[in-house]
Amino acid sequence: xxxxxxxxxxxxxxxxxxxxxxxxxxxQWTKNLLVFFALVFSFNEGWRLSDSxxxxxxxxxxxxxxxxxxxxxxxxxxxxxxxxxxxxxxHSKKRDRPIASGELPAALAWSTAAxxxxxxxxxxxxLEPTFGLVAAVYVALMLAYSHTLKRVVLIDxxxxxxxxxxxxxxxxxxxxxxISPWLYTCTALGALLIALGKRRSELVNAGPxxxxxxxxxxxxxxxxxxxxxxxxxxxxxxxxxxYTFTASNLPEDHSMMLTIPxxxxxxxxxxxxxxxxxxxxxxxxxxxxxxxxxxxxxGWLVTAxxxxxxxxx
Length: 313
Description:
Layout (H helix, E strand, L loop, with lengths): L13 H10 L13 H4 L11 H32 L1 H4 L9 H4 L4 H22 L1 H19 L7 H19 L7 H26 L3 H4 L8 H25 L13 H18 L5 H7 L1 H22 L1
Helix pairs in contact: 3-6, 3-7, 6-7, 7-8, 8-9, 9-11, 9-12, 11-12, 12-14, 13-14
């Protein structure tokens, strides 16, 4: 008789630390880069590149906000995996996550999550009280998502979108600068597009056991999600296009419209990967592994920063 397969127990210290870090999903932290949008798009809202001391202060505050959100989001992922441990064990890939596999003890995961949330929120209020409030709302929303909202059809994807918007808001309030409402609109729609693509790939990859792996999937169909994507994608493009020539903090010559092709290509590339390759289940991995998407994102960023820098020189 064959010996039953056993999973090695991590050694104390390095093994457990690695398991904690994996459960905090560092690749997902790329979502928190949204906090830097306010830094980039607020050149004419209270500071100048020529004021080196203020520029350094703004950059440091944005960096600290990013680090805090990474800690808080990592804690939320720990809680999420604790809540989903049984369904994850039925998933072909998620069953290898440290908590689902038994590599990371639940007690350690709970204590780490609690420590990160308490310390992260405490530091966020010290950094900027309004930022602390936004961070607290973000944690509350994400915990509600992990516990209940992700099981409610439509509310699940809107909750994901709201999480992205809160990140953008956090980046603005930590600097105490106003940001065009268009940027929040674009962020919300873009995040909604990503969330719908994620659900579509999850549904396709899960097969008949979709409801067992994620409760909300039983209420979706591929056709329905395709219709939602067909509505949200052009809405996102229209919102971004309007943003480039109506936002008050952008150059008056409408040169920001030069970034539109990068957005169009990025959207098309993502939709292609979702429909043709079924790769939308882990969009954060696409951001760091898909070369055309990386080139598009870098091209957008370089073009936007160059336009803003030249306009404010």
